[in-house]
Amino acid sequence: MPARSSKKRRIKASAVTQRNIALIVVVALVALVGGLWFFFRGDGSADEVALDARLVALAAERGVDSEKIVADSPIRKLDGVFVRTWRFEFPNRAARDGFLGDLQIEGVARKGELDLPEDLSSETVNLRFDLGAEAFDLHLQLAEAAPAARPTAKRPTPTPRPTARPDPAPDARGRLAILLDDVGQKFDLVPAAGALPQEVAFAVLPFLPQSAESATALYDAGHEIWLHLPMEPENYPEDDPGPGAVLMSMSPEELRKAVHSALNNIPHVVGVNNHMGSKITADLRTMTWIMQELKVRGMAFIDSRTTIRTVAEDAARGQGVLVNRRHVFLDNERDRTAIRRQLAEAIYRCRLDGEIIAIGHLDPVTLEVLTEDLPGIAARGADLVKPSELVR
To answer: At the topology level of CATH, where does 174-390 sit?
Structure first.
């Protein structure tokens, strides 16, 4: 009996030893797999949200259906780098442009390289987000438009007739905001400008000898102050936007510093509109950087629309910046009759559309017309409001 008992103990001990060896092997394999994973993933911190999960979250915030995201199709290894191909479908261009702005921020936070194409206006934008040991090829496309209607038999072309302009309802009223640009150049006009209704706002050019003094005087008279930020036009440097201008050649850091300095130069500012800027406002990447700085400072933006290719509103909405646009220019012609005609157009448009923004300049003729005509616009169906009331 003692010999048989001793044999059983040896068999039991052997089984335990085998189980321990198996457990050690499993643990070692898990450790090896984990080590390889972290080796190929890079040395990011464990508490950092993985980029793939972050991409899904950012896309969802922009209205992308997560079930329609095509992820890791395919995954390739190029020169030792795992390249993951992802496809997103955005409901509209503004959503996609906002996502591009999100990627800019994410690239800075993760110290990655974001390779954006020059042309961001196409239906599909392809770019690479490079993290070093891993990269993402991202294909951002817009949702397909509804299929075109089937062609029908051609009808005889009618004789063209002028389209009649719609008439506002007889009792229609609208809200009209007026913003006068180029303040800071002619201080002798400031007293007359300050006497205008307090709803009229003024956009001040930075870094001129009397910029801050003009802003303070108009603010003390009860008016709203905006920064008239100089931006690079298409034909720069022949057309010089002036001191403190934002230029296409600037790095993101230089650009943000230029915007920050201009905002600090003008007191009492509630928002920004562009001075010139036909080249800058057509570039989504640059406008996104500008809007990121305005978002941090809590500023609104009014697009002066100096080019039909402007993307300023899309960039602003993509970054959550309150925005609106110029609808009517009051004084492209510095002539009393022409300015009165444009003011009548602004009143008509606000009654028809509900609310609009008109932009003019701190000019003697413009001031004369507004001084004479603004007291009577309420009787014509227009309620004068400050521009900050019309940004959304």
So the answer is: TIM Barrel (3.20.20)
Using the Cα atoms of residue 129, residue 130, residue 131 and residue 134 in order, give the sign of their dihedral.
positive
How many CB atoms are closer than 10 A to CB 200?
24
What letters, b where the CB count within 10 A reaches 16 and e where it falls short, cover 27-59? eeeeeeeeeeeeeeeeebeeeeeebeebbbebb
Tell me which residue has tokens 């205008």: 196
Helix (H/G/I), strand (E/B), else coil: 18 = helix
Please report, for residues 78, 273, 351, the alpha-carbon distance to residue 170 in angstroms, rounded to integers and kept in the order given: 69, 34, 10
Share of the chain above pLDDT 90, in %: 63
Secondary structure (DSSP) of 120-173:
--SSEEEEEEE-SSEEEEEEEEEPPPPPPPPP-PPPPPPPP-PPPPPPPPTT--
Structure letter (DSSP) for residue 209 = T
The owner of tokens 């800075």 is 108
Query: Nearest CA to 222 among 241, 251, 201?
Result: 201
Angle, helices 284-297 vs 252-265, to 10°: value is 50
Q: Which pLDDT value is given to residue 154?
A: 65
Those residues whose C-beta lies under 8 Å from the C-beta of residue 320, and which sit 6 or more positions away, are: 295
**The domain over range 51-142 is classified in CATH as 3.30.460.10:** yes
Q: Residue 182: CA atoms inside 13 Å, Cβ hemisphere, count?
A: 14
Residue stretches of the chain with pLDDT short of 50: 1-13, 15-16, 22-23, 25-27, 30-31, 33-47
Considering the entire predicted model, what is its pTM? 0.63
Rounded CA-CA distance 26/7 in Å is 29
Q: What's the CA gap between 382 and 392, in Å, rounded?
A: 20
Task: Report how far residue 363's alpha carbon sits from residue 345's, in angstroms, rounded to the nearest whole number.
Answer: 19
Residue ranges of domains in the chain: 51-142, 174-390
Could you give the CA distance from residue 272 to residue 175 in angstroms, rounded to a whole number? 20
Residue 198 contacts residue 222 (beta carbons within 8 Å): yes
pLDDT score recorded for residue 31: 45
Strands across the sheet with 81-90, in order?
A: 75-78, 81-90, 134-142, 124-130, 113-115
